[in-house]
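so i finally got all the pieces together for this one. its four components total, 678 residues if u count the protein bits. some of the lines might not be protein, just check the labels. i wanna see the whole assembly predicted at once instead of chain by chain like last time, that was a mess tbh
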Amino acid sequence: MNLKEFASKLELSQTTVSRALSGYPEVKQSTREKVLRAAVEFGYRPNTSALGLATGRVGAIGIVLKGGGEFGPHTSEFMGGLGNRLQKEEIDILVSTVDSTEAELATYRRLAASKRVDAIVLHSPYIDDPRIELLTSLRLPFIVHGRPQTEGAFGWLDIDNFSAVHQATRHLLDLGHRRIGFLNGYRGRIFAEHRQEGYQTALADHDVAVDPALIGNGEFTDEMGFRLTQGFLKLENQPTAIVAGSMMSALGAMRAIRIAGLKVSEDLSLIAHDDVFPYISPENLMPSLSTTRSSIRAAGARIADMLLELLQGKPAQELREVWPVELVIRRSTAAVLQR
Amino acid sequence: MNLKEFASKLELSQTTVSRALSGYPEVKQSTREKVLRAAVEFGYRPNTSALGLATGRVGAIGIVLKGGGEFGPHTSEFMGGLGNRLQKEEIDILVSTVDSTEAELATYRRLAASKRVDAIVLHSPYIDDPRIELLTSLRLPFIVHGRPQTEGAFGWLDIDNFSAVHQATRHLLDLGHRRIGFLNGYRGRIFAEHRQEGYQTALADHDVAVDPALIGNGEFTDEMGFRLTQGFLKLENQPTAIVAGSMMSALGAMRAIRIAGLKVSEDLSLIAHDDVFPYISPENLMPSLSTTRSSIRAAGARIADMLLELLQGKPAQELREVWPVELVIRRSTAAVLQR
DNA sequence: CTGAAAGCGCTTACAG
DNA sequence: CTGAAAGCGCTTACAG
C-alpha cells in the first residue's frame, strides 16, 4: 500500500498523512492519532526509496568489511551493539564486503555516489589511512571506531589501548616478571601502536629492556595466539608471563602453554585484553584469567548514538571519546617463580 | 552528480545515457563506450533511491540477526561468503538486529512494507517456523540457509547434517566406542534434529542404546562445549568419545578434557563438525582433530548465487541443494582403550 | 489545521 | 539509434 491509497482510505490528503506520520506539529491531535492507528492497522510504511529521494535520508549506516579477516568475533560483537541501538530508530546496517583496501575505497565512492547510506562507521584506522581522507572528500559523514592520527572534522571513539597494556604489563612487573611476552596486533594499526607504547613504557618504568623476540604481531585469533606463543616457548630465554591482545589469542596461548607441559599461573602468568564476548568468559577459564576489560559491544552501541547525533547536526569535533579500561586480576597471574 | 548533469556533459539525453549504462541493446556501440568511459571518469552512479523507485529493485539483500547469539563466528563466515559473491553485482547486505522472534517478524514486515530489500536470506529454520509463512505472505523473495520442514515455493541450501553426524558416530563405533557423548545444537532447530537422527541411527545400527545423559544441547561456543563436556566427565559411566557440533565446541571440549587430566585420543576420542573457519584449523590442533567438513563460507556464496537466480525469475523450486559432508580422519580419534 | 502541486533522480513505453 | 515526457512514492514550500 502506498501513501495515496492509505490517505484515501482515511479520506485525508497525502500531505496531512505524511505530516502526521512524521510527527510535524501542525497536525490536529485527533487526526494524528487516527493516522497513527491506521498505519499500524494497515501496516503502512513509507517506501524507503521514495523517502530517500525526497529527503536525502535512506535510513542506513554503512560498514565495509574486508574479506575473511575482519569478519571475526570482534566485528560481530561490535556490530551487535551498533545494530541493537540503530534498530530502535529503524536504521539498518548496510554491509559491503571487499577483499582489498583498494576495493574498500572504491566501495566508499560507490556508496557516496549512489547515496546508499547516511553515514559510515570506519574501523581499525591505521597510520596514513587513505580512507579518512577519501570519506572526508566524499562528504560522507563518518565516525571512526578507533583513534586516527590525522586531524579532521570527524568523530571517533576509542578505548585507552595504551593504558590497557600499560596496566597489564605493570601488573606483571609488579609480580616480579621481567621476561614478558606480548601478543599484539599488526604494526601500522593505530591501536596496536598504542598498545606497543603501553608495553614499552611499562617496561621502561621498571628499567627492563625490550626484547623484540618477545613481541608477536598478528590477528587476534586462537590460531595466531597458539603459534606466536609456541614461538615464545621455543626461545632459549622463555618468557615467564604473556600479555595477550584478546580472549581469542589468550585461548591459543593457553593451548600452547599446556601442550608445552607448562601450567598457566604456576609456570607462566597470562593476562589478556577482554572485549567481553558473551560466549567466553575469563572467570570460567582454568585458571580464571586476569584481564583488562572493555566491552566492544558497548562501544558499538555508543558509536550508533554518535552517528545519530552526527546526523542530527552535532559538530563532529564534539563526538570524541576515549574509554578507560579496567584491570581485573584473577588467578592466571602470579608472582614469578624463583628458580 | 545526477543523470541530468551527467547527460548534459555528454550532450546526450538522459534516456540514452541511462540505456547505455544499463546495457540496453539499442544504443550505438560508440555512444555506449563514450558513456561508460565518462561514467568512470566523473564517478557517476545512479542514485539508489531513484533507481529503486523507478525499477522496484534496491540492490540489497536482507538478513536479520538475533542479538548476541547469532552474531557469532558461524554467521560471520556465512556472511563473508554471501557478501563476497554479492559484491560483484554491487549488491549489499542489509543487516537488521533484533532480540526476539517477535521483533524479527516485525522487521520482515517493515522491510517488506518499506521495500528496503530485494530478497531475504533466512537462516537456521526451526520446527513450525513462523518466519517462513510470514515471508511467503509478504511476498518477499527468500532463500533458506538450512532445510525447512514446511513445503512452499522457496529455495533452500542445506548441508547433510544427518550424514555428518552419522559418519562421525559410525567412525567412533567402528573404533570400538560405545559410550559416545554428543554436543548438539538446541532442540527444535532443524539441523540439530537431523544431527540427532544421524547420531541415533548410527548407534541403532550397532545396537547401542541412546543414553540421554550423553547428549548435550546448546550454542556452538567454546564455553558451551566446555560446560557440557565437564558434565559428561562427571558421569559415573563417562563417555570414551565425543562428537562435537562445531570447532568452537570442540575447543571447549578439549579444554575440559585436559583439565580433567585426560588426553584427547589416548583417553578420549574427539571428532567435530568443521565449518572451515580460516582462523582455526583442525590440522593444527594437538592432536590434529578428526572432522566432518563443509565450508559455511562456500554455502554463503552459493546462497548469494541462488538469490540472484531467484531475482532473475528462476522458480524457487529449482533452487534446492543438499551438500554432502566429508569425513576427515586425523589423530584425535583412536580405538577405544581396553581396560 | 489542511491540501494541491512541484520536485527528488531515475527508467521506460511511446514516438520518431 | 535517440529523445521528450510520464510515472515511481514520497516530502514540503506555498497557499488558504
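Residues 12-16, 19, 26-28, 31, 50, 52-56, 115 of chain A lie near DNA strand C (CB under 10 Å from a C1').
Residues 190-205 of chain A form the longest helix (16 residues).
anyway lmk what u think
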